[in-house]
Amino acid sequence: MSLSRAASLSPQGTLLSEVIPPSSWQKKQQNPPLPTGNRSRCPEQDVSICLLVALLQRILHAPAPGMDQESGAASAGSFISLNEHEQRYYSGLHSLCQADTSGQLSSGKVAELFKASQLPPEALHKVTEVCGAKRLGYFGTPQFYVALKLLAAAQSGLPIHLESVTAKAPCLPVDLPLPRFLGLKNEPEMRYSAVPPSIDSQGAQGGTAPGSLSWTPADRSAFRHLEANAEKKELWSPPRSPCGSPSRSPLTYRSYPYTKQRNGADSQIAYESKHSSQLEQHSSPSNYRTKATVEHPAMARASSSERLDQQGVVDYSDDDPWRITEEQLEYYTNQFKSLQPDLGALILGAIAKNFFTKSKLPIPELSHIWELSDVDRDGALTFSEFCTAFHLIVARKNGYPLPESLPPTLQPGFMQQEEDIPDTPEDRTIIERLQPSLATTKQDLKEESCKQDVGVKRVTTSQEKQTLQRAFPERPEPPHDLDPQMRTKTRPRSYSSTSFEDAMKKAEEPPTPPPRPQKTHSRASSLDLNKLFQQGAPGVKGGWLPPPPALPPRPTTSQVPHFISVSEKTPQNKVQQPNFADFSHFREEEESSVKPEEQGLRSRFGRSTEDLTNASKQDMIGVSHSQAPQKPVRRKYHPESQNLEAVPPPAMPFAPPAKPAQKLLSGQKRGIQMAIRKNKETNAVLTRLNSELQQQLKVVHQERVTLESQLELLRPVAST
Amino acid sequence: MAVCIAVIAKENYPLYIRSVPTQNELKFHYTVHTSLDVVEEKISAVGKSLGDQRELYLGLLYPTEDYKMFRKLHNSFTDVMCNPFHNPGDPIQSKAFDGIVSGMMVQTG
């Protein structure tokens, strides 16, 4: 008996292990039909084998019309390869759909099955179209099989296209999980496929296939991490193992045969498809790895693994980069909490700025992102605004150009819709999703209330915004902004305005007149020196005595009073000069020959300037001596006539490291600065004086001219 | 409606200026500059009495029908200022602001 059973099994085994392209089904038909009469002895196995047999019969006796039509089927010349599990499964489903003798499946049942796959209707239509049933008007077996394969592809997140399921396409991961259907009534195959036989090696191959064309190696590494986590998960929760790992089975290149099988078994729990789709979405827009995000998605998955709910809202067939997936949402939640523990509160603008600046995007782009996401224009980010902003940053980092306006999926209304729809289970799932991430019930309550607050806020923001904006231009502290929310909003405004004022004040400083830096700039002494040297007549240079090199290199404080005394002299000179000028003026009038007086004036003036320049030069010399401690060597060796060149260079390298005379130096610096200031004042005074004297000169000249003319007029009269 | 729109900073330099390009822009720029004198007049008159509760919004310098325009402009200006990434004193580079301003400008060919 056992032998016969074995014998009966083996042809089946061979049959099933072969790749069965539809075109070769006819061949199979030629094979002797399986021994139907083989009723095996052991009960469970007998039953299972019976079923298997039945299935195989169905497959093999698939009617010819189905075969003929399959050439015209949408397979378009290429055929699907089904591995044995898929074969089994599909045939089971095929039987479920009650194929009648003509081979057409009852459309009602097929529709039911498709609905049970939990795919959106557009996807289902597409599947129907692609598999050729639409064209034919009914589901034949090949169409059905193609359709099932497409469903599996769609549930794994691959696009619904023939190439996804044909063996020839390089992007096909051969180990697509079996399509999952919710709530199917007769699922004997489930039990059968629950037995985890060894997987063919195609699993490994399929994984390495670049089915993840759109995924970067970074994602793979991320997935590796996730796998590692998944392995851990597997250890502690075998019944929960369908959670993170199996969804990734088509995506990873390490095959997890057991989990896959169990995944197929637990087809009622269809959220893995969600996972895979989310993974795809997660990979494409959010490759944001700068902040150890690898762990976060893993954590997210760990928490999401506890969700055993129905399929979520996410329309993964869209592959919309602007849609926030759950993992991203959780990651953003965590980040928000790191900045502001209360999810319902606002993040202030400055805090958000520091945070987003870490993303190293250029400031204008960050500014644009802010504009897009701060919808209520309050200078602070609510949780949803924060998510929006974060998502935009992530997208931008992945190379997506910034939109001009908020995409609809990122608008706060969208998030709100998700939350506010009470009837759908999605709302509950979202709340439940966030529950494990928050991990405390208190926070759940808070969060729900926060969500409501946020919703309320949003509703009232438009009104408040108007009142706020009306209030702001008027500026008096708002009489009508008494709501606490308004206060929170005005607070950021006032904060920003104070910072604005501060910034303005800072901006005011640069336009102030330039003389200021010169006072502190000790190097300016060298410039002044140059100017003075140029101003001075050549005689001055000659008359400029080189300072005795015997002077001590460290000018004592006695030199400082020396400066002061010198500078005091100059005002005296100034005082003397007006008298001097007047005196000369009188003298000029007496003599009536102006030229020598002018010269005298000039010479006196020159002398006075000489005095001054000498005095100031003495200052400078003192200065240069005060510079001596920095460069005593140079002072000694360079003759002062070369001081012109010497002074600038030592002035330049003006930072004497580790000189003990630095205190003295600072004192001298101050002295020098004082001296410089005084010299400048005297300069100014002198120039004024100069101009006045010039004017007087002109006046006097005029008078002289008139006098001379009168004289000439009078002379002939006198002579005659 | 408007031929030229300018936002002048406190230090009397323009943060933002835009005019309809077909006209001779320099004239407009001069007008803007001279209007600053009017502003200064008003400020000096008001500032003494109120102290720190200064009215920043001096109202329209000349009664025109464009008060809505000014309000809109001012609103968008405050939005720009609210942006934490915007340094006050920088020229205004916000696209939203640009959009609003172009909406307010003359829509001739």
TrEMBL record, chain A:
Q: Which domain of life is it from?
A: Eukaryota
**Species for this entry:** Dicentrarchus labrax (European seabass)
Q: Where in this chain does the record put each EF-hand domain?
A: 361-396
Q: Where is the EH domain?
A: 86-177, 328-412
Q: Which UniProt keywords apply?
A: Calcium, Metal-binding
GO BP term (any one):
endosomal transport
In terms of InterPro entries, this protein maps to: EF-hand-dom_pair, EF_Hand_1_Ca_BS, EF_hand_dom, EH_dom
Put simply, this protein is called: RALBP1 associated Eps domain containing 2
Q: Where is the composition biased (Basic and acidic residues)?
A: 443-456, 472-486, 587-601
Region annotation Disordered: residue ranges?
19-41, 193-217, 230-287, 437-524, 587-608
A GO cellular component annotated for this chain's UniProt record is: plasma membrane
Ranges of biased composition (kind: Polar residues)? 278-287, 459-469
In alphabetical order, the GO MF annotations are: calcium ion binding
Q: Which Gene3D superfamilies match?
A: EF-hand
Automatic annotation (TrEMBL), chain B:
Indicate whether Transport appears among the record's keywords. Answer: yes
In terms of superkingdom, the source organism counts as Eukaryota
User: Which family, according to UniProt?
Assistant: Belongs to the TRAPP small subunits family. Sedlin subfamily.
Kindly provide the name given to this protein in its UniProt entry. Answer: Trafficking protein particle complex subunit 2-like protein
**One example of a Gene Ontology biological process annotation:** endoplasmic reticulum to Golgi vesicle-mediated transport
Tell me where it resides. Cytoplasm, Perinuclear region
Q: Which Gene3D superfamilies would you find in this protein's record? A: 3.30.450.70
One cellular component term from this protein's GO annotations in UniProt = perinuclear region of cytoplasm
CDD domains for this protein: TRAPPC2L
Keyword annotations from UniProtKB, A to Z = ER-Golgi transport, Transport
Primary location = cytoplasm
Which InterPro entries does this chain map to? Longin-like_dom_sf, Sedlin, TRAPPC2L
